[in-house]
Amino acid sequence: MPALAATATLAGRARQTGAAVTFTSDLDEQGLQAAALSRTAPLRTVSLREVSVCSPFHPHLPDLGRCGAHFVGLNTRHIAWDYYGRPADAWMAEHWQRQRPALYALTGTPQAA
């Protein structure tokens, strides 16, 4: 797979130089993904209607895009602030519970009983 080849190239370069590859933010991961994908085909920009930046917090969008969604903050262990007087964690948990059935249905993922 070309993406795996790009990752192998990065690992090989790290071995050659003796420098460790260290990700310092999610932007590093996104950059690596873009670099790997760009080796297989030209990248294209999509609209927010196609792939939404999805979260319950303004200015993000609360709904899925036509082709997908990037869930902002979903993997965060704890969001240490309140939003409209409620813990942001509660908003995020409710948002995920609302979106999960549609995501599972669209991807054919079985839901736990």
Structural class by sheet pairing and helices: mainly alpha
What is the count of DSSP helices, taking H or I runs of 4+ residues? 3
Pattern of helices and strands: HHEEEEH
Give the fraction of residues assigned to helices. Answer: 40-55%
Low-confidence stretches: none
Rounded to the nearest angstrom, the radius of gyration is 18 Å
Oligomeric state of shown chains: single chain
Tally of strands: 4
The pLDDT mean sits at 83
DSSP strand content: 5-15%
Q: In whole angstroms, how far apart are the ends?
A: 35 Å
How are the strands of the biggest sheet laid out side by side? 1-2
Largest sheet: 2 strands, parallel
Global morphology: extended
Key features of this structure:
113 residues, 3 helices, two-stranded parallel sheet, mainly alpha, two-stranded antiparallel sheet, extended
If you had to describe this structure to a student in words, what would you say it looks like?
The chain is mainly alpha-helical and 113 residues long. Helix content is 43%, strand content 11%. α1 packs across α2. The model has no long low-confidence stretch (mean pLDDT 83).
Summed up, what is this model?
Helices cover 43% and strands 11% of the residues. The protein is mostly helical and 113 residues long. α1 (2-17) crosses α2 (26-38).
